[in-house]
Amino acid sequence: MAAAPLAPADVVALLDAPAGAYVHVPFCARICPFCPYDKVVPRPGQPEHYFAALRTEVGRYLDAGAGPFTSLYVGGGTPTLFPELLGGVVELLPTTGERAIEVLPTHGTPSRLDALAAMGFTAVSVGAQSFSDDVLHHLRRPHDAAAARAAVVAAVGRFALVDVDLIVDVEFDDAHAGAFLRDLTSCLELGVDQVSTYPLMRFGYTPFGRAGHDRRREHEVLAEATRIAAAHGYERRSVWTFNRRESATYTSITRRRFLGFGASSASFLGRDHLLNQFGVETYIGAVEAGRLPVARHLHLGTLGGLAYDAFWQAYAGRIRPSELAAAYGHWTAAVRALLPPLAAAGLVRRDDDGAWALTPRGFVAYHDLERWVTYHLIEPLWAEMLEEHAAEGGRATWATPSAARRTHIWQLVARALERDRTA
């Protein structure tokens, strides 16, 4: 028998610790063909309806006792496309810590950045991707290298934390004289707080399509990036990020608990993982009908929650058994038992404070593990959810879900963990 639909109070009750908030803005003026995230070119009037639904969803959670939130992260899509509509959502979310937003370079003008600061944002991530026009053309980005550099220059000093996203497609990079390492050096010389250096993921359902990866070359490039960063006073603080040693960390994915608002947003509650509707109209319709727009509910349980939590701690470079034990009790022994063999293999080392830090060899192994998880678990789930756009006659024509990787691993995980529920 199908379970009853989740109510906001049910979700809040599942949280085992204070949570951050994630808000998803699924609108883009132009679609980048490599990007796998949930996004559409908006119809006239659709943004107004969407943000009204967002305010309603947030309000229902607040009425059920959610918040205050430990942090706020706004992603997309293009979060800065409709700042005047976004402001009405941000002001509803009581936040005690960092407020962060992704910024398209062409929106990173001094006046627009000042408006974001006035809205309460303390951190920005500039989606530069490269300072090379050749690379930006390859990625089909809606800006040029000059706009990317200008946005970074304008952001530094205006916010407590400035991150810059760079993407490296190693085969293309090698054929174009290694622009990625020059881009990294430029960011470091501009004095940004963090550089996020993502290897290009080729999701089968995107126009870029599936492709193999030169793992050896990726490892070499990231090792050289680590050397360059260290020479400029930066440290490798996660698998793909480099930080000034005195700076805070900017991240959306390693917050230990979070509630998601908006189409395709996810929530991790400690032992449960929720995913909202991907279809923009489907999401709006669910909210207007008085339902939570939750489409998928994976009940991870104590052991699964522990594994999820430890996985993202490892991504951030340090596994902290004491923090895991506070949430999962004696089950944390499963993680503790794995750490000495990993240390013997040279993948982690014990720190004085009781945490276990990834070694350079550990970062290499995790790089490959993260790509495996992305292709075997995340891509098939997102492909299933993107089908909602076709069902509602939406505008996600860039996505071809039938071309995605369909793995037996994901099917087994979904069968074992998914909680059935009525629509």
Task: Describe the protein in words.
The chain is globular, with a radius of gyration of 21 Å. Helix 2 (46-63) packs across helix 10 (280-288) and helix 11 runs antiparallel to helix 12. It contains 15 helices and 15 strands. The chain has helices at 8-14, 46-63, 83-90, 110-118, 133-139, 145-155, 170-175, 179-190, 215-231, 280-288, 301-315, 321-328, 333-344, 360-391, 408-417, and strands at residues 20-25, 72-76, 99-103, 123-129, 161-168, 194-199, 234-236, 241-244, 258-261, 266-268, 272-276, 294-299, 318-319, 348-350, 356-358. 45% of the residues are buried. Strand 3 (99-103), helix 4 (110-118) and strand 4 form a beta-alpha-beta unit. The protein is α/β, with parallel strands linked by helices. It has a 9-stranded mixed sheet. Strands 10-11-12 form a 3-stranded antiparallel sheet. It has a 3-stranded antiparallel sheet with strand order 13-15-14.
